[in-house]
Structure formats: C-alpha cells, structure tokens
Specification:
single chain, mainly alpha, 2 domains, two-stranded antiparallel ribbon, 2 strands, 66% helix, 2% strand, elongated
Length: 246
C-alpha cells in the first residue's frame, strides 16, 4: 500500500489531488523500472499493489470534476502487462487533466499576485481591511492552535473529517494578522460548528465552543469595519435577530 496515511491526508480539491497522485505514480513507476530485481520480482504484487491503489484513487478524484469519465484498465495475472496498462491509464489521465492543471496554475498565479498587491496596500495603509487589535490577534492564534491540537488528539471524529477540519483550522491560523483583506477562512468555520454540534453531540461541545469564540472575535472585527455599533450582537439569520426591520 502507499503507506504513511498518504491517501487519508490528501486535500479536498480534486485537481490538486490528481496532480499529487500522478506525481506519486510516476515516482513509484520509475523506481520499479530502475530496479535491479529480476523481472518476475520487479512486477510482483507487492510492488504493483500501491500502483493499483493510486489508480483507483486517481479515477475517483478525477471523476469528481464535471465532464471527466475515465476507463479503468482490466488487470490480469501478468504483472508486467498490468504495469504497462496502468502506465497507459495515467498517461491518459495526464492528457485529460491538462486543461484543468493549466487553469489551476493560472488561478494560483493570479491569487499570488493579488495577495502581494493586498499585502503591499496593507503595509501602505491603503485599501479596505478588517482590523484586529493586539489582544484579539493573540487570542485567535491561541484558539486556532489549541483547536487543531484538540481535534488532532480526538478519537471522536472520523479520520477524513478530522483531516478536513484540521486543514480548515490551519488555514484560519495562517490568516491571523492585525489587518486582513477578507475573513473567508474564519467564516468557513461557522458551518463546521453546526456540523460538529448536530453530528457529534455534547462530546464535541468543547470544539464547537472554541469555534464560537473565534467567530465572536471575527464578528467584532467585521462589525467595526462596517461601522456597526460597538458590541453589536452576531445576527441570528434564522429568525432575523440583529437585522434591521423594514
């Protein structure tokens, strides 16, 4: 198998995952090709099983992208032939995914330039930003860090959900600063708090409560930036509490 919990620690974006899986396949395939073992051992089940696992995962993730459908090769008892069939499968995946990889690379480049622009404007004191005071930055850093550790050490959450939640907390932690251009990484935690409370019950309450503390600090910064009164309550969107009535 691929080992090191590789598959359980993949990111959520299917294009990114397929790119990683392709790299992993080529890495392992090259190792097999360059092996000095006899052919019968080189293409034995122990060497090919991880490639089969990668192939199945690649197909599953690629087909999460609209319009993509891949045909899995029919493998048999001949290890060498199976290797060639899987290599052809991954070549086809690479061709199919090429426009998606290109679009993703362009998006990443644009986002990188936008981040540089926003950071430069932030340093110059220009543009629209949300501001946290020194005490709130320290609280956010501590809350996000502690929550990541709590989630990581918990046996309550399934591995895939635990990984997803940790990644979201890691992203929020990386966004903590005195002035930020958006709060998206933090607001994404609101839905997670709802899932945690509804799905995992009272045992997960400490995690949900920690997220609520983060959201309270984030709402404080957003309310301030939007000119709302100091201490304005976080609105309850389900019953309209905190919203202006017509």
């Amino acid at each position: 198998m691929t080992g090191d919990n590789f598959l359980s620690q993949l990111p959520d974006d299917p294009t990114t995952v397929v790119h990683l899986l392709l790299h992993k396949f080529h890495e392992r395939a090259q190792k097999i090709k360059k092996s000095t073992e006899p052919v019968s051992e080189r293409y034995a089940e122990g060497n090919l099983d991880p490639l089969i696992e990668l192939m199945i995962a690649t197909k599953a993730f690629a087909e999460r992208i609209d319009g993509i459908s891949l045909k899995k090769p029919k493998l048999g008892p001949d290890g060498h032939k199976n290797f060639d069939l899987m290599a052809a499968f991954f070549d086809e995946v690479e061709k199919t995914m090429e426009p998606h990889f290109k679009a993703q690379a362009e998006k990443i480049a644009v986002e990188r330039i936008e981040r540089i622009e926003m950071e430069t404007l932030r340093r110059l004191g220009q543009g629209f930003f949300y501001e946290f005071d020194k005490a709130d930055v320290a609280k956010l850093e501590k809350l996000t860090h502690n929550l990541r550790n709590t989630v990581g050490g918990s046996n309550l959450f399934p591995a895939d959900y635990k990984h997803r939640l940790q990644m979201q907390l890691k992203k929020a932690e990386s966004e903590v600063d005195y002035r930020v251009s958006d709060l998206d990484a933090f607001w994404g935690l609101v839905a997670e708090a709802g899932v945690i409370t509804s799905k995992f019950g009272k045992e997960a309450q400490p995690v949900a409560a920690g997220i609520r503390q983060i959201i309270d600090l984030v709402w404080k910064a957003q309310a301030k930036a939007e000119g709302l009164p100091l201490g304005a309550p976080f609105p309850n969107l389900l019953n309209g509490t905190g919203t202006k009535k017509a």
